[in-house]
Structure to design on (997 residues):
């Protein structure tokens, strides 16, 4: 089946970028609204092709679908090869849902809105490209590009300390990309014949290859795996590399932070899963213990830190770190249920984080800050918001319970599968992780109580209820989470065959 | 007669030079505009002839002093294209007064002739002379803004360095001449091939020649001139120097290294091996690694945009050397591909910087703050050009850097490739600092709006489009570059 759905999905947002760049600059309302609509339409157009892609995928098969392939730089065996399978399908869905919403969320951006839309569109395109690329070079290409827009998004539209956190972000991202590039070169030259095609690399048995450095013979697989894990870990803010991430959380506008934690980080984790399972099965099996350990530490450290936060965004950041730990546990469980759960959780977590992030953005927009818990001795600033803004309360509640994994929402399905899958192999780490999740319940409900219930605080009256625009972009998120939670069957069916094939490679 | 057909492009260039000089004397007032047109027409016909000459096949002409092979054809077209871009770039520059442009164009043409002879020369003396001509003209170009203190410093610095390097080059060549009693590099190759140069003589001559050429290419031992000269020279001249002077150095380096210090490997085609006992690839590796690191670390500390670009160029030179020391055609093809990318990228960077400097009156990164709001296409293109230079996706520079690093890694230079990757990462910080200032804070900046100029935009598009095409058609360009090397004459 050789259709061009994937290319359309990747390229349409880029056409939007060109449009934003060359739109003649005139002062006046009409050109601004033209640029907004253009951004939204191109982003949506890309997304719609993404939805069509997912809808037309045939289930029950682990094969790559919608494959497009042509040679790009033949001398280095680099090709433009894209395709989609169960592992990437859900994330394609996530990216397709999140980015139009982000553009809608920044609808009233006053400063340099066109630049912001263009950067979001670049992100949408590169992330979709990284998800669908079946050529290691192409995948790295898209993944590396996706680091740059954040630098500008944080550095320009961020808060007081934006320059500082933006330069931390770009430093960490470049180092991360350099690690991945080093791994890529190692892998390319270890494979015989040299190739970048993931399919051919999977058969090239990297574990048996060696290379020399300072006259020491080293095996390629562990070194490349380590470089890859470190490089992706740096960019996905896995503990202990999360320092920059909380800085970004503090300074970035809510929508940018959502693009980071709700889309980019899941894509990074996806790349790790894809490459680890298909290229380094032996090394993965050998290092499962380490991944689980890092996962548990992420869950614990993230959650303990989350409890101490007074600001919605920092709470969200640490929560994201902790939830990523769960996904790590799931993907390292080497068990079908755990793996499917990890993949599914990427989608539902991404949606949940996106919703929660946008909610914190709405609060910031109205009150000027998002500190929900007063310092000791101060009176609470918010409180009783539920009475004034019932819709915000309902929607925030929905996102909160989805993040906590309550039945009926997407988070429940993913988390339960991860629990089920990893319990047989790793009961103790799982129990530790679940206990820390109780902390999550405590801290999210504390937040909810402080914000929405009780007596009205000094700033509660600033929090007006949702407008039409906000309703129209938050509603799809809530609906998506509900569908994920109530009827996950079609999505799980997409994932399962691919996961089983990957696991059979490992076993 | 056939021999003359081979050097028709050079002949066209010389004729154009003559016309420009005559024009300078006779034209006055508005007519001086015609000079640019004359130069462009002459360069255009030279370029066409240079491209046609690809079909003639290789030959050695004029008593074997000139070697017309793939490398010559490649570099000749390259230099003529560079001269065209440089002449076009003048049209918007305010740094060079209109009345002084004729002189400047004449100098450009002279340098172009010298560069193409340097690329094609198979004779040690002719190589030396053409490089000296390149350097003398470069010295004029570097000090062209003679009223500015910085330009004076640039000119003097360039002159001192070029004098030293000229001296070293001739000493190195003398040693080889003394041994072989020949000036023709192919004869020398055969003589050395039969009776190897003794190791001490080889070491000394290689060191002397390489240090001399390291001035030309701006690599480790003699890189000091680059930031000062490129900063002090008027920006259009800096652009021409940054590409022309360096690339002519590379042209000579490739030819000399592959004929005097290496021989085709017996067992595999497309590979060379070291001739004699001197292990010079390790020396080159050291130089390459040091240049890359020094370049990026210097770039991190610069406050002036032009100096920063100069430092990134030092690091780029280090990376390019990787293509040379691996001693196979894959590496050299990667090197040539990078040069093509660099031609557009560096010209673009300096062109836009020149425009920004004219507008702001300074090239300190902090003064460029917030320019994005006033000149968005320019700033975005500048960022793209710099990204391309340092080799960050999505620009074609990335494919180039990958090809270079890959060539080195494929030959087992693991540490060197690691250094290259690290220096790429560090140069990203340097570039993002500049980019960050450009983007700046558009909440606070208020300035006059910059006039829209169709000429400027179209020139930028003229550079950006071919650049992007080099990425899309990377395969074709790489194989073209590879073809250029395969028929290097022996």
């Amino acid at each position: 089946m050789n259709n061009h759905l994937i290319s359309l999905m990747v390229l349409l947002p880029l056409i939007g970028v060109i449009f934003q760049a060359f739109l003649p600059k005139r002062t006046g309302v009409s050109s601004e609204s033209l640029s907004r609509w253009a951004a939204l339409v191109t982003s949506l157009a890309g997304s719609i092709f993404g939805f069509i892609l997912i809808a037309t995928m045939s289930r029950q098969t682990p094969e790559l679908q919608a494959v497009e392939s042509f040679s790009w730089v033949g001398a280095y065996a680099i090709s433009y090869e894209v395709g989609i399978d169960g592992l990437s399908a859900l994330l394609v869905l996530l990216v397709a849902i999140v980015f139009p919403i982000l553009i809608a969320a920044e609808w009233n951006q006053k400063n340099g809105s066109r630049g912001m839309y263009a950067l979001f569109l670049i992100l949408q395109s590169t992330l979709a490209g990284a998800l669908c690329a079946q050529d290691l070079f192409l995948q790295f290409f898209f993944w590396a590009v996706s680091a740059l827009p954040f630098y500008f998004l944080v550095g320009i539209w961020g808060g007081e300390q934006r320059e500082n956190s933006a330069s931390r972000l770009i430093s960490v991202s470049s180092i991360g990309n350099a690690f991945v590039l080093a791994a890529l070169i190692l892998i390319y030259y270890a494979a015989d014949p040299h190739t970048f095609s993931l399919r051919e690399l999977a058969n090239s048995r990297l574990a048996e290859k060696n290379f020399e450095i300072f006259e020491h013979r080293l095996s390629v697989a562990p070194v490349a795996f380590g470089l890859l894990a470190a490089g992706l870990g740096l960019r996905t803010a896995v503990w202990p590399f999360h320092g920059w991430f909380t800085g970004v959380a503090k300074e970035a506008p809510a929508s940018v932070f959502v693009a980071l934690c709700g889309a980019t980080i899941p894509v990074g984790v996806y790349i790790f899963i894809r490459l680890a399972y298909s290229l380094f099965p032996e090394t993965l099996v050998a290092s499962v213990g380490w991944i689980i350990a890092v996962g548990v530490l992420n869950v614990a450290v993230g959650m303990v830190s989350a409890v101490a936060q007074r600001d919605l965004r920092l709470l969200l950041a640490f929560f994201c770190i902790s939830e990523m730990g769960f996904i790590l546990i799931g993907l390292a469980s080497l068990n079908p249920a755990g793996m499917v759960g990890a993949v599914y959780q990427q989608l539902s977590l991404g949606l949940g984080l996106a919703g929660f992030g946008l909610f914190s953005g709405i609060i910031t927009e109205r009150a000027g800050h998002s500190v929900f818990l007063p310092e000791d001795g101060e009176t609470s600033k918010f409180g009783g918001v539920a009475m004034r803004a019932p819709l915000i309360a309902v929607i925030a509640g929905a996102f909160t319970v989805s993040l906590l994994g309550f039945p009926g929402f997407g988070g429940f399905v993913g988390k339960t599968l991860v629990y089920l899958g990893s319990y047989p192999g790793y009961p103790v780490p799982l129990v530790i992780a679940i206990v820390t999740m109780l902390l999550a319940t405590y801290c999210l409900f504390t937040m909810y109580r402080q914000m929405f219930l009780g007596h009205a605080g000094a700033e509660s009256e600033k929090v007006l209820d949702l407008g039409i625009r906000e309703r129209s972009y938050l509603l799809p998120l809530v609906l998506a989470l509900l569908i994920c939670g109530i009827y996950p069957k079609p999505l799980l069916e997409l994932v399962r065959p691919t996961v089983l094939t990957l696991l059979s490679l490992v076993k | 007669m056939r021999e003359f057909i081979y050097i028709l492009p050079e002949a066209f260039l010389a004729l154009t030079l003559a016309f420009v000089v005559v024009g300078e004397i006779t034209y006055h007032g508005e007519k001086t505009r015609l000079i640019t047109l004359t130069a462009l027409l002459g360069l255009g016909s030279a370029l066409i002839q240079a491209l046609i000459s690809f079909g003639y096949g290789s030959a050695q002409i004029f008593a074997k002093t000139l070697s017309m092979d793939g490398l010559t054809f490649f570099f000749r077209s390259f230099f003529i294209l560079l001269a065209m871009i440089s002449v076009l770039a003048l049209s918007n520059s305010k740094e060079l007064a209109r009345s002084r442009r004729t002189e400047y164009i004449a100098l450009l043409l002279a340098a172009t002739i010298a560069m193409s002879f340097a690329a094609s020369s198979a004779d040690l003396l002719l190589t030396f002379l053409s490089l000296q001509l390149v350097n003398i003209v470069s010295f004029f170009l570097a000090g062209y803004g003679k009223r500015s203190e910085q330009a004076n410093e640039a000119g003097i610095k360039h002159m001192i360095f070029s004098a030293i390097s000229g001296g070293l080059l001739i000493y190195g060549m003398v040693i080889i001449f003394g041994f072989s009693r020949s000036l023709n590099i192919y004869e020398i190759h055969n003589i050395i091939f039969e009776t190897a140069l003794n190791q001490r003589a080889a070491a000394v001559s290689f060191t002397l020649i390489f240090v001399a050429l390291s001035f030309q290419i701006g690599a480790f031992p003699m890189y000091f001139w680059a930031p000062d000269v490129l900063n002090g020279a008027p920006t259009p001249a800096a652009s021409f120097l940054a590409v022309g002077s360096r690339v002519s150095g590379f042209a000579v380096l490739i030819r000399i290294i592959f004929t005097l210090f290496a021989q085709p490997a017996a067992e595999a085609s497309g590979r060379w091996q070291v001739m004699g006992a001197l292990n010079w690839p390790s020396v080159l590796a050291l130089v390459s690694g040091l240049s890359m690191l020094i370049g990026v670390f210097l770039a991190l500390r610069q406050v002036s945009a032009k100096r920063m670009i100069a430092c990134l160029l030092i690091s780029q030179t280090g990376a390019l050397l990787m293509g040379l020391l691996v001693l196979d055609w894959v590496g050299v093809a990667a090197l040539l591909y990078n040069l093509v990318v660099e031609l557009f990228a560096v010209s673009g960077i300096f062109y836009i910087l020149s425009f920004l400097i004219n507008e702001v009156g300074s090239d300190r990164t902090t003064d460029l703050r917030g320019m994005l709001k006033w000149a968005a296409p320019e700033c975005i293109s500048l960022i793209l050009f710099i990204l391309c230079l340092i080799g960050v996706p999505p620009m074609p520079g990335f494919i180039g850097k990958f090809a270079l690093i890959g060539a080195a890694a494929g030959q087992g230079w693991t540490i060197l490739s690691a250094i290259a990757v690290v220096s790429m990462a560090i140069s990203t910080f340097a570039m993002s600092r500049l980019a960050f200032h450009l983007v700046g804070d558009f909440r606070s900046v208020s300035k006059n709006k910059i006039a829209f100029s169709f000429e400027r935009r179209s020139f930028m598009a003229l550079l950006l489009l071919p650049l992007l095409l080099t990425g899309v058609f990377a395969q074709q360009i790489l194989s073209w570059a590879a073809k250029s090397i395969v028929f290097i004459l022996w």
Notes: The longest strand of chain B covers residues 59-61. Chain B touches chain A through 44 residues (CB under 8 Å). The mean pLDDT of chain B is 87. Chain B is about 75% helix and 0% strand.
